[in-house]
Amino acid sequence: MINMRKINLALLLICFTTLTFGQTELQNLTVESLSNPIGIDIKTPRFSWQLVSKVRDTKQTAYEIEVKEGNKTVWSSGKVATEKSIFNKYAGSPLVSIEKYTWKVRVWDNRGRSSKWANATFGTSFLNASDWKATWISSGIEGDTVNGIVPIFRKSFSINKKITSAKVYATSRGLYDIRINGKRMGDSYLSPGWTSYNKHLQYQTYDVSDMLSEGKNAIGALLGSGWYRTTL
After folding, report:
1. Which among 108, 51, 122, 109 is positioned nearest to 78, based on CA atoms?
2. Residue 26: enclosing H or E segment and its boundaries?
3. Which residue, of 24, 32, 39, 199, has the greatest Cβ tally within 10 A?
4. In the predicted model, what is the mean pLDDT of the chain?
5. pLDDT higher than threshold 50 for residue 24
6. How is residue 141 annotated by DSSP?
7. According to the model, what pLDDT value does residue 231 have?
8. Which of 10, 98, 109 is CA-nearest to residue 58?
9. C-alpha span between 90 and 24 (Å, rounded)
10. pTM of the predicted model, to two decimals?
11. Rounded CA separation 209/185 (Å)
């Protein structure tokens, strides 16, 4: 005699396994082609992601993006019918300079199934020219490294409270190497990168929260000629 209870249970397990196996997932979430960037200076950044599915011929038919500033939703795209999964432009409330945002995305595939929400973050830097308050630091040495001299800057400072978040925004005419409390910021040796120096300068954003401590601290920088000052 056939045990119908066992058959029904087996069919249920098969259906559950099929649904789980065929679930569309999202990975490699980026903003302006960067993973969880901390210093985007574009007012309408673009979001991208990749679909992953073990079912052949699966493709996206729609997406939904939600962006939050803390607990406040600053943009909800709603369900957008499109196969486009790269460079989908932000269209919410104006972003704020020096702020951290969280965002999530889900998609629907060509079988009508929706993915789970995938989450990521991004931070803004200076979105307006008026946000910049810093002034240039000069060595005062004529010719600088062209004459074989490497300018070195150092400043000590004290912190009287616990650090929750700290960032450094850095650039130079030429190359720079910056350290806080003896620890080097970043992993590049050619910052800030080549550019047309008489028109604009690139800059980098560093999260230095873990490099600082309560009490005495010091920041130092070495400068090099780089592409800005060279005879080649």
Report:
1. 108
2. strand 25-31
3. 24
4. 87
5. yes
6. -
7. 61
8. 109
9. 24
10. 0.81
11. 11
